[in-house]
Amino acid sequence: TVKVFINGKQYEVPANSTVLEACNLAGVYVPTLCNHPRLEPTGACRVCVVEVEGSRNLQPACATKVADGMRIITRSERVERAVKFNLSLLLSRHPKDCMTCEVNGRCEFQDLIYRYNIKDIFGGEQPLSKVYDDSSPAIIRDLEKCIVCGRCVRACSELQGMDIYSMVDRGFESLPQTAFEMPVYDTDCIACGQCSVFCPVGAITENSQVRKVLEELEKHDKVLIVQTAPATRVALGEEFGLEPGSISTGKMVAALRRLGFDYVFDTNFAADLTIMEEGSEFLERLKNGGPFPMFTSCCPAWINMMEKLYPQFIPNVSSAKSPHQMLGAVVKTYFAKKINVDPKNIFLVSIMPCTAKKDDIIRPQHMINGVPAVDVVLTTRELAKLIKIKKIPFATLPDENYDDPLGESTGAGAIFGVTGGVMEAALRTAYELGLGKPLGKIEFESVRGLEGIKEATIDFNGKKLKVAVAHGGLNVRRLLDKIVAGEVYYDFVEIMACSGGCIGGGGQPKSLDKDVLVKRMKAIYTIDELSVIRKSHENPSIKKLYQEFLEHPLSHVAHETLHTTYMD
Ligand code: HC1
Ligand code: SF4
Q1: Domain extent at residue 444
Q2: What is the pLDDT of residue 461?
């Protein structure tokens, strides 16, 4: 540690801290905009400037390292004047249509403008960028709102390894642009939405369907069904002021009923169903000799990446649809029949931590007898918005349960929401179904945690299975490149395009908490631990669904309903 003085008071801070981290540790407020605790600092926006004794110029706190004995001033007239000037400049080239902005009320820039009482001193005469890109079903880029912080560029490159954007200078104005200024959907973009989660303003947002869902809820001329992903329940509360990692499953279900949905089903149920199919597929491949590695298929951003950049792996990816598609397919066949309603008159919404799922639902392979299996995907953020618009008092709602028959789930289904979870759930079931004997210990610790690439060797009745788990596009690409080069061999690989898996999805609440993924991850494992049943094949509702409709895993009807194909 080193000693620093902040506004005259002495603190001890880790020697490699930035001035910003030191101030945060000391509880001293420093405004930030381009900085994000999960991205490399750049000092671009100069909103975090401070005085450092011995330096002539103000220094960006995010990009300045502490030194022993450093004297830092965060509160002075000079600092205040600089912060206000920098904010005024940004505001002068920012539209003033906050009323209709997707992130109104949740905008880091708006908060600073309010806090520093910035008036539009330049009169908003600067020309605004005209880039409006709604080519993607996943995200919308409205670059007149861009404040050039570069967080989207860094998220897409540093975390996702996709490099879709770079800062292009156009006179005094730079913008995060795609190569040749192509519509983002025509690039290699995988629709993961990380750029939208890291955008502090409304320049990149999910392609919102809130109005569409409001309209359906108000018309209510169809049977309205909703399903919720494993990872939404451990993050939704953050939008209502709860700590990251708060589990709000029961309140979320209650809110969805108050919104007017007729049935609230659980994607976790379908995660159990996925394990039945995918686990059985893996056992088949073990019998038939491959192809290996088998890759998991539930992450649609990974599927986009695979089809665009690694099409040689098409035969390797499990043919199992993702859980929310399986649930959609079961709703529009089995359940429609059960309630005697034409599938055309069912409107199914998936609440997902993910923007790529918005892209996934329009794949032609996912049509069920001429209707889409899932009609609309809302992100966790959009659900929060809907709940707020409808003035539902989230924090004081009672805990309610999911509806039958597609609402019962196990701990194995729950852990789908975190990196390593699909692998662990699949191993729990493949082991017991394959070997016909109970697992001693059902936790597979070696595939847990937030390390980017995890490997394990599992003893499968004498056969040593090599498995790997990767999450976050950059790690995924590193692992795949090694597999392509023949440097490593695995039997089974789980891939999630976002860091942390779905808990860190592009549709999750934005967070400036650097430990947000750890907190959400812990919540997911708590749900597993508290579950009475923790293996997918022991889910009674799954057993019943096979008895009444699907016959057995990989049956003809299961293939027709629950499996898919890929294309390059
Ligand atoms: Fe996921 Fe999945 S776990 S992909 O990470 O397989 O989005 O939460 O819903 O479908 O179950 C996301 C989460 C989600 C699917 C499941
Ligand atoms: Fe990059 Fe993902 Fe944004 Fe596409 S959606 S530009 S891949 S961060």
Answers
A1: 211-562
A2: 83
> What would the pLDDT profile of 378-419 be if each residue is shown by its tens digit?
999 999 999 999 999 999 999 999 999 999 999 999 999 999
- Residues 6 or more apart from 25 whose CB is under 8 A from it? 11, 13, 17
- Last-in-domain residue among 156, 175, 206: 206
Q: Nearest C-alpha to atom 1 of ligand 2 is from which residue?
A: 156
Whether the Cβ atoms of residue 214 and residue 389 lie closer than 8 Å to each other: yes
Ligand 2 close to Cβ of residue 159 (< 6 A): no
pLDDT of residue 169: 80
- The pick from 277, 299, 383 for probing ligand 1's pocket by mutation, whose C-beta has the most ligand atoms within 8 angstroms, reads 299
Q: What is the pLDDT of residue 122?
A: 67
CB contact at 8 A, 46 and 31: no
Confidence (pTM): 0.96
Residue bearing tokens 């830092």: 72
Whether 99 maps to a domain, the answer reads: no
Distance 325 CA to ligand 1 centre (A): 10
Query: Does 382 reside within a domain?
Result: yes
Q: Name residues of the chain where pLDDT drops below 50.
A: none
Question: Helix axis angle, 267-288 relative to 323-330, nearest 10°?
Answer: 110
Number of domains in the chain: 3
Note whether 181 and 228 are within 8 A (CB).
Answer: no
Q: Are residues 385 and 240 in the same domain?
A: yes
For residue 124, the model assigns a pLDDT of 57
**Residue 361: nearest ligand to its CA?**
1
Q: Is 507 touching ligand 1 by the criterion CB < 6 Å?
A: no
Residue with tokens 């159990």: 272
The response to whether residue 497 sits with its C-beta less than 6 Å from ligand 2 reads no
Q: Give me ligand 1 centre to Cα 401, in Å.
A: 19
Task: Measure 176 CA to ligand 2 centroid, in angstroms.
Answer: 12
Under 8 Å between Cβ of 101 and 107: yes
Query: 141: which strand partners?
Result: 133, 204
Query: Which numbered atom of ligand 1 lies nearest the CA of 356?
Result: 7
Report ipTM (2 d.p.). 0.95
d(CA 399, CA 418): 23
Same domain, 37 and 157: no
| 566, 306 Cβ separation under 8 angstroms | yes
